[in-house]
């Protein structure tokens, strides 16, 4: 006797098993159908020279197997350590060969336009508004998932594994006395130059920059300020002795050179870096990214000296058209006579300074602070400083290709504030400022044009015995282009922040 297709077997258990098998087969069929949209496609997506690279390295993204003039959508994404997804998108049109090359072809729309080989990286935006990318452990890479589609059909997928630490870099948590942080040590026996890397208000450390510096041959202590592990969650003062202990800790390490250390700082940690340079004898080079010349928020103590914080006038806060707070002009002018007690006496320092500033910094007027710092040094007969300024860049100058953070929760006001910067210009500034960190290794020597011709390139660092060449812009290439093989030149002035 025949039964209709909708009839059961009469056995409930058997019917349930059959229903499960049918559902399972349906899911597998659907999954296989989706997989065929790109696994069986003739379209090829390539990441060159390798799908694995350092975080600050550029890659080439190419597609082939498309039809002539076919439109294709590219999307990149990753998930940070807080679970926030960052994405970038771009639309391209294949050439007559059915190829797309991001280094030659322009994006027609998306999170960026034009010819931008790394646009899928620097133009990323968080799915949760005002989020800043978080990477707590820089010993593991970030995985960027890149997908190509056309007409709603997925054509190809690839993953770019981007590392902060090169092979052989060692990461070790530090809990020594009061000191808390993470130590990154380069491969090899050393001794190596050493750097204390400090982050911004909120107290936590930032490992990505420290790991990248270690990959370039530095022992780096990413130092927490407060609110980290068993440290106090909040503070009502900052003790410079804590940072002095960190310097002593570094210099006692057998793999560290005994010739002095460098300091990397950004934002709030900038005035701490200035105080370290002014009072601690072993500091040899200091880099400030959008820092202040005066103490802010908490009193800064060193022995019997107290630097009071600048007064903040919350009534000066304005609101942007998008409803975000602008706090740029909240602080009083540190150069006014009644505020001079808050200014760090950098004229005491014997180290070299590099002030990196963004002209669209909405956190505060970092350009003005750098100018005043240089005026103080100049008035005391010092020439140990340089300033690098980036128009239209914002406050958070991070490592190359890090997503732009134009706004976010500010710990001082606990509300969303503007940090500034136009995404493309800011990305260019991060590319250069990330490479500027290796200026700790440079020192002034005559450079022969023959050496420069050997391996001159943009944004690269090269070594040859006691000569180091760092070219971070087309401007430097212009300096050397017309020199003959027996010519000698000096490294341009803006590269004279040197630490050996």
Assign the structural class, choosing from mainly alpha, mainly beta, alpha/beta, alpha+beta, or little secondary structure: alpha/beta
Helix percentage:
10-25%
Please state the average pLDDT score.
82
Strand count, sense and barrel status of the largest sheet are: 8 strands, mixed
Task: Walk me through the structure.
The longest helix is centred in the N-terminal third of the chain and has 28 residues, at 12-39. The protein contains nine helices and 29 strands. Helices cover 21% and strands 30% of the residues. The strands form eight sheets. An eight-stranded mixed sheet has the order 11-12-14-13-16-17-22-23, sandwiched between helices. Strands 2, 4, 5, 7, 8, 9 and 10 form a seven-stranded mixed sheet that branches.
Task: Jot down its keywords.
disordered C terminus; alpha/beta; 7-stranded mixed sheet; disordered N terminus; single chain
Entry summary:
The chain is of the alpha/beta class and 500 residues long. It is 21% helix and 30% strand.
SSE inventory with pairings:
Elements: H1 12-39, E1 44-48, E2 52-54, E3 60-64, E4 71-79, E5 85-93, E6 100-101, E7 109-110, H2 119-122, E8 125-126, E9 142-150, E10 153-163, E11 170-176, E12 179-185, E13 192-198, H3 207-215, E14 219-223, E15 238-239, H4 240-252, E16 256-266, H5 269-279, E17 283-289, E18 300-302, E19 305-307, E20 318-319, E21 325-326, E22 352-358, H6 366-379, E23 385-390, E24 407-410, E25 415-418, H7 423-436, E26 447-448, H8 449-455, E27 460-464, E28 467-471, H9 474-480, E29 488-489
Parallel strand pairs: 2-10, 13-14, 13-16, 15-18, 16-17, 17-22, 22-23
Antiparallel strand pairs: 1-3, 3-6, 4-5, 4-9, 5-7, 5-8, 9-10, 11-12, 12-14, 18-19, 20-21, 24-25, 26-29, 27-28
């Amino acid at each position: 006797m025949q039964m209709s297709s909708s009839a059961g077997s009469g056995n409930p258990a058997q019917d349930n098993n059959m229903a499960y098998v049918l559902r399972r087969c349906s899911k597998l069929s659907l999954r296989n159908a989706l997989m065929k949209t790109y696994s069986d496609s003739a379209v090829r997506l390539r990441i060159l020279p390798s799908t694995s690279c350092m975080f600050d390295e550029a890659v080439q993204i190419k597609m082939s197997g498309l039809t002539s003039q076919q439109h294709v959508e590219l999307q990149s994404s990753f998930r940070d350590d807080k679970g926030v997804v960052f994405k970038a998108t771009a639309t391209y049109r294949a050439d007559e060969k059915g190829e797309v090359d991001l280094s030659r072809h322009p994006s027609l729309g998306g999170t960026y336009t034009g010819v931008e080989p790394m646009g899928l990286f620097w133009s990323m935006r968080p799915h949760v508004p005002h989020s800043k990318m978080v990477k707590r452990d820089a010993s593991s890479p970030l995985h960027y998932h890149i997908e190509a589609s056309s007409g709603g059909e997925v054509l190809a997928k690839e993953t770019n594994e981007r590392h902060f630490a090169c092979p052989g870099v060692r990461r070790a948590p530090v809990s020594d006395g009061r000191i808390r942080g993470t130590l990154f040590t380069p491969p090899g026996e050393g001794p190596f130059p050493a750097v204390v890397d400090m982050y911004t208000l909120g107290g936590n450390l930032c490992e990505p920059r420290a790991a990248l510096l270690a990959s370039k041959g530095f022992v780096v202590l990413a130092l927490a300020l407060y609110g980290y592990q068993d440290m106090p969650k909040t503070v009502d003062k900052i003790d410079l002795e804590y940072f002095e202990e960190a310097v002593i800790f570094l210099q006692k390490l057998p793999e560290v050179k005994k010739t002095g250390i460098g300091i990397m700082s950004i934002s709030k940690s900038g005035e701490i870096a200035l105080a370290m340079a002014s009072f601690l004898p072993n500091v040899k080079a200091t880099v400030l990214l959008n820092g202040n010349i005066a103490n802010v928020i908490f009193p800064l103590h060193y022995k019997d000296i107290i630097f009071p914080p600048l007064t903040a006038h919350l009534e000066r806060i304005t609101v942007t058209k998008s409803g975000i707070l602008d706090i740029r002009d909240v602080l009083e002018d540190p150069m006014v006579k009644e505020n001079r007690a808050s200014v760090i006496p950098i004229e005491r320092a014997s180290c070299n300074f590099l002030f990196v500033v963004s002209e669209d910094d909405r956190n505060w007027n970092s350009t003005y602070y750098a100018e005043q710092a240089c005026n103080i040094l100049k008035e005391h007969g010092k020439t140990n400083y340089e300033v690098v300024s980036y128009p239209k860049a914002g406050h958070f100058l991070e490592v190359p290709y890090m997503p732009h953070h134009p706004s976010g929760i500010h710990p001082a006001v606990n509300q969303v504030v503007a940090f500034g910067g136009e995404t493309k210009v800011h990305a260019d500034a991060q590319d250069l400022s990330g490479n500027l960190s290796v200026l700790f290794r440079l020192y002034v020597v005559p450079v022969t044009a023959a050496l420069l011709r050997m391996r001159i390139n943009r944004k690269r660092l090269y070594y040859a015995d006691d000569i180091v060449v760092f070219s971070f812009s087309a401007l430097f290439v212009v300096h050397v282009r017309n020199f003959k093989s027996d010519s000698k030149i000096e490294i341009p002035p803006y590269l004279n922040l040197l630490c050996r």
